[in-house]
Amino acid sequence: MTSPLSTAEEAHKAVADRLTRIMEDADLSGARLAALCGWDRSKAHRIIHRKTIPKSVDIRAWCAACGRPEEAEALIETTRTAKILYVQWSQYLKGGLSKAQRSTIYQETRSFRVYSCGVLPGMLQTEAYARGILRTIRRFRSLPDDVEDAVRARLERSDATLQGNQVSVLVEESALYMPMTEHPEHAKQLEHFLSVIGRPNLSFGIIPHMSLRPVWPLESFYAFDDREIQVETLTAMVRVTNRAEVDVYLNAFAQMSRAAVYGSKAKALIRKALDTTEE
Known about the structure:
Elements lengths: L5 H20 L4 H8 L5 H6 L7 H10 L6 H14 E3 H4 L4 H4 L4 H4 L2 E6 L10 H14 L6 H15 L4 E7 L10 H14 L5 E6 L13 E4 L3 E5 L3 E5 L2 H17 L3 H14 L3
Parallel strand pairs: 2-3, 3-4
Antiparallel strand pairs: 1-7, 2-5, 5-6, 6-7
InterPro entries: DUF5753
Protein name: DUF5753 domain-containing protein
Pfam families: DUF5753 (PF19054), HTH_31 (PF13560)
């Protein structure tokens, strides 16, 4: 499985490699280039070895010092793209939790594929469960308290997503046992799953504990049509847009789908989890 960071890493590597070739073509050393740019002598070395991501002004100065100013803008755009593909949560959520629920990609997508290894899928969350997870995120990331607005926005987004679109969800059985709310609210979330299984536009599969694994454990991800994957890591939201990498995720989803159970078998696993909320 391709690393979710690889698209952004490859973009940064492409910029560093191109800057290195431009420097070598100009017959300059890293120390000499740094001097021409007015930098600390080690800065060029850090950029070449991707210890430092160059800013736009750095790229322009580098290209100008090498006599290739016309190369700067394309490299700057590549760096900007990499930053869009790998967005730290502190940056992504700086406008608040409610703003993050209003991403336009949901409105532009007709086929959703969701794999969840822990937190239950946002588009199928009850109000209480959504409130629980959003409160947890707010506390963990020390964000302003706009949880109630974020809950409303998430529920509105979910309603719109489930209207006429094709949604395929895969949930690890273990995720059924990870409450993000008090047990009565978690039980209502599981009961909600029982109520939605069987909808014509929703495929809901559960991968049992002891199912033979076709793919090693992955982090939760969302697939938006066949054009973008969003992977949720602890520190960042990673967007995968390279078609070859998107296809790897879609292939993994297809293989895991075959390891899942559906319909009455999925309901039986949910009811088993429900029993534990009463203990």
